[in-house]
Amino acid sequence: MDVKALPKNVDDVIEPEIPEELRPDAEPAGPIGLTAPPRGFEFSPLNTRRWRNFKANKRGLWSLWIFLVLFLASLCAEFIANDRPLFIHFDGKSFFPVFITYPDTDFGDDLGTAADYRDPHLQSFLKDHNAIEIWTPIRFSYSTINDRPPSAFPSKPTWLLNAADCDFAAKNGYSKCGTLEYNWLGTDDQGRDVLARLIYDFRISVLFGLILTIVSSIIGIAAGAVQGYFGGWTDLLFQRFIEIWTSVPELYLLLIISSVLAPGFFILLGILLLFSWVRLVGLVRAEFLRGRNFEYIQAARALGVSNAVIMFRHLLPNAMVATMTFLPFIMSSSVMTLTALDFLGFGLPPGSPSLGELLSQGKANVQAPWLGLTGFFAVAVMLSLLIFIGEAVRDAFDPRKTFA
Questions:
Q1: Given this model, what pLDDT does residue 42 score?
Q2: CA–CA dist 144, 160 (Å, integer)
Q3: Domain presence at residue 366
Q4: Residue 85 shares a structural domain with residue 233
Q5: 210 and 321 part of one domain
Q6: Residue 291 shares a structural domain with residue 388
Q7: Is 210 among the domain residues?
Q8: Rounded to an integer, what distance in angstroms lies between the CA atom of residue 357 and that of residue 380?
């Protein structure tokens, strides 16, 4: 070998070029000649199996889609049932009454009050000036009173009116059938459109049940986790407190507080939250008592991992498997509690859209069966959907449940 041919300095040595895919800091590649695709969000194998089991329960899957469609539609209730137009183009200007309250001076009046778009005088004025109006499918809000009924309130659904009803309306000073505004499900005993109220009823009931379920579950899971993980005197004192607290008559306390405070959405939510958080405590406590002695928990303690990290990162996911199966049932129970309180007259303020108030009107007006039937079927459909979803969630989280 010729020594003179060797480089004198180390810097002169030319390193062989290493392919990019073979470098230590390179991203893992696929088969030779192929580039590994970028990784996005992926379900873990366990969650993939749970979703597959959930989809295998066709009744629960369809119930979930139907419930989501109904709930999303109710969230847009102002765009479905409203006594204000969505859009008005008048005198070269564009108005959006569904979002903004305009004074009637913008439409040729001089009172200076909020414009009443159902007023015949205002409608005639806009028609004479060739204004463009776009209305919602239902021209009633939940509190709008039908001022052109075919009979005394509660009035029949418009599609149920027959010749005798039209003759009765003409003879007794009510609006003629050709000039009626359409009430698909009739009106209640105060002249409000039942279908419009039903849409708003559904929204407020689901939102109330959802908020109550989420908040009470957070408090109940935290209380059960502390009890089960620490045990001893902590568990003993918590258990005695829960026994004393649950022995307090909930209905009597609700009546006392309602007599002192004005009823409202958040007042009622706070009162029911005082008792609803207890539902999950026993279940979460049992899961933490079982899991705190597992070997990996003992190893985490030996490594100096804090109690908070062990509780909420290592033990809580295992406890949530059993907890998740109860959430749809807790939500249906919350909705039913609100409906029952409204039916008894201790729920939301008078005039608020409520399924319980609709059922109460059906009981008080047996001569108007559309009120009771509408309230009954609305509650039955809502609770059935939630129960079917809960059964599907239970099957999805059950490790013994397998589907072909």
A1: 61
A2: 21
A3: yes
A4: no
A5: yes
A6: yes
A7: yes
A8: 15
**C-alpha atoms less than 13 angstroms from C-alpha of 116 in its C-beta half-sphere:** 10
Backbone angles phi, psi at 112, to 5 degrees: 80, 10
Query: Are 308 and 388 part of one and the same domain?
Result: yes
Burial of 125 (0-12, 13-18, 19+ CB in 10 A): middle
Distance of CA 86 to the CA centre of its chain: 25
- Which of these three, 113, 137, 161, is where a domain ends? 137
Sorted by sequence, the CB contacts under 8 Å of residue 45 that are 6+ apart come out as none
Given a cut of 90, whether residue 64 has pLDDT beyond it is yes
> Which tokens hold the place of 390?
């809960």
**Domain membership of residue 159 as a residue range:** 145-191
Residues 61, 54 contacting (CB under 8 angstroms): yes
Mean pLDDT of 364-393: 92
* 14 pLDDT higher than 60: no
Same domain, 132 and 149: no
Q: Residue 194 pLDDT > 70, yes or no? A: yes
Tell me: do 279 and 161 sit in the same domain. no
Q: What is each CA distance from 55 to 110, 284, 328, 332, 337, in whole angstroms?
A: 60, 27, 16, 21, 30
179: tokens are 């000039």
